[in-house]
Amino acid sequence: MNEIKLEFEAVSENEALARVVAAAFIAGLNVTVDELEDVKTAVSEAVTNAIIHGYKECGGKVIMNAALKRESKDTCLLSVEICDTGVGIEDVEQAMQPMFTTGAENERSGMGFSFMEAFMDQVTVTSSLNMGTMVHMEKRLKGYDERQ
Ligand SMILES: Nc1ncnc2c1ncn2[C@@H]1O[C@H](COP(=O)(O)OP(=O)(O)OP(=O)(O)O)[C@@H](O)[C@H]1O
Ligand SMILES: [Mg+2]
User: Fold this and answer.
1) Adjacency order of strands within the sheet including 61-70
2) Atom 12 of ligand 1: nearest residue by CA position
């Protein structure tokens, strides 16, 4: 088991930071370029949502927790959580529908959650109005880190 926690300001420059940290966290495994891209894209979508929807681009703190657990001889489970304490989501089920967006006027397409679901094995969203949002994602990866 390996775990990290990263807390950063909700500004767009930090999307790249979160992507790179997530990629570095699994770099010790034998992940394919595709798997690495999947994780980076999913993290990026969740962090973007926290910045633009959760905090309405007015800033706040975003926390990324990541954990890697060895599951079998040659697989491990990556969990990544992106948390904000922003405005929250009124109806999570509706928000996760492909093409649902509250940002149409800002040229949002409503595909962020769909990408997360497509690129990760599991996505669970927990949110309360005015309390914030937690996006928990899991992906099974081949290979394991000798340190686990
Ligand atoms: N962290 C969050 N805090 C508050 N609302 C959120 C959060 N994440 C998502 N939402 C809500 O869920 C909707 C759908 O999110 P999703 O990422 O699928 O699409 P989008 O961000 O609107 O567009 P895209 O990701 O394609 O640019 C958002 O429009 C927003 O209303
Ligand atoms: Mg989005």
Assistant:
1) 2-9, 61-70, 75-84, 132-142, 122-128
2) 95
Element (H, E) at 63: strand 61-70
Confirm whether 15 is domain-assigned. Answer: yes
108 is catalytic: yes
pTM of the model: 0.96
Ligand 1: which of 15, 83, 101 to mutate, judged by most atoms within 8 Å of the beta carbon?
101
Q: Is residue 147 part of a domain?
A: no
Domain that holds residue 118: 2-142
Query: Is 45 designated active site?
Result: yes
How many domains would you assign to the chain? 1
Digit-coded pLDDT (tens) for 104-131: 899 999 999 999 999 999 999 999 999 9
